[in-house]
Amino acid sequence: MKKITIAEMAKYNGQTVKLGAWVSNKRSSGKIAFLQLRDGSGFVQAVVVKAEVGDELFATAKSLTQETSLYVTGEVKEDERSSFGYELAVTGIEVIHEAKDFPITPKEHGTEFLMDNRHLWLRSRKQHAIMKIRNEIIRATYEFFNDNGFVKVDPPILTGSAPEGTSELFATKYFDEDAYLSQSGQLYMEAAAMALGKVFSFGPTFRAEKSKTRRHLIEFWMIEPEMAFMEHAESLKVQEQYVAHLVQSVLKNCQLELERLERDTTKLEKIKAPFPRITYDDAIKWLNDNGFDDIKWGEDFGAPHETAIAESYEMPVFIINYPIGIKPFYMQPHPDRDDVVLCADMIAPEGYGEIIGGSERIYDYDLMKQRIQEHNLDESAYAWYLELSKYGAVPHSGFGLGLERTVAWISGAEHVRESIPFPRLLNRLYP
């Protein structure tokens, strides 16, 4: 007897196979029982016909409880009514473990209850679909950067300084020294780019930001490429090609998941490079002309501002050339202006906010030293970083993409907490 997964069923049409699965739901109609099975690779309906299996096996099928684990044998059959395309005609059931009183029943539950039971909520169809889309985005990320000559480099999670120069850090003791959980691997990736040309990292980052919005997490994952001999305009092209690749890969490889989430794929199908660009100056003017009198030049955008701008476009939009005063110390000044820097934020459509922040980096030693001093940073902690502009400095650019916001946008999830397996939120460290 061939043991297969649900995802492999198409290859075994007409054959009798064995599945290891859990019962996600069931219903019966007279002398037929319908079992909704899942095995991690997918979901399928198994049909148990009393006249074909006998009284004992049919009684077993009818008694199965939600999340009971079992081995099921049966014949794989095409089913045009199913979005999956196949069903299993059951000939045998072997119960492994009977689950009793599974807390997440097929009805509406409150958010806090579901978050308290996140370890079980992951089993639901919707959460399963979001995790599969997350996995596809990760796969496509490696594909894009590997195909374009990047080398993956892993920066440290424990650092001795703050790349963004902020106080939103988780501090800890590193033996007799102060250390912080990384809020970005960027500075280390710049060092790696000076050695390997084009690099990217993919790892966890931490922000001690006391925010409760649907866009924020305390712990999240970042993809951070850095590219030597690359100016800002060239970096924007890489960013839009990368994001377009992610979207098209999900459309191609996650059709069932997008359908399960009832995602409007017509909006995703439009996501192709190049993306529109708008300057910070023009964005401020547009906002002021459209009823947003609360923001003035020199201030950073809030969620309502980003959403309003994004709604004017059908694709992600770059907002470029922010004021120097609201951006980190390492960004290259604009060649024709001393009040803005060569940077961009990519704002996702449909109200999902910033998914990428990037810039050209300063590579002039004296200017970098001046910026560090102006931001009141500990120069000794950044001594190694300063040396990057001392020994063979070159123009270079990079960016960071937040994985969870990107997953939320592409999957259409209402809240970013659904786009990571076990979210860390303000006042939530369980489970």
UniProtKB/TrEMBL annotation:
GO molecular function: asparagine-tRNA ligase activity
Subcellular location: Cytoplasm
Reaction catalysis annotation: tRNA(Asn) + L-asparagine + ATP = L-asparaginyl-tRNA(Asn) + AMP + diphosphate + H(+)
Major subcellular site: cytoplasm
UniProt keyword Zinc, yes or no: no
Aminoacyl-transfer RNA synthetases class-II family profile domain boundaries: 131-431
Superkingdom in the source lineage: Bacteria
Protein keywords: Aminoacyl-tRNA synthetase, ATP-binding, Coiled coil, Cytoplasm, Ligase, Nucleotide-binding, Protein biosynthesis
Coiled-coil regions, chain positions: 244-271
Family annotation (Pfam families): tRNA-synt_2 (PF00152), tRNA_anti-codon (PF01336)
Name of the top EC class for this enzyme: ligase
The enzyme's E.C. designation: 6.1.1.22
Record's signal peptide: none
UniProt entry tagged with the keyword Coiled coil: yes
Family under the similarity heading: Belongs to the class-II aminoacyl-tRNA synthetase family.
Assembly and interaction partners: Homodimer.
Name of this chain's protein: Asparagine--tRNA ligase
Organism: Planococcus shenhongbingii
Gene that specifies this protein: asnS
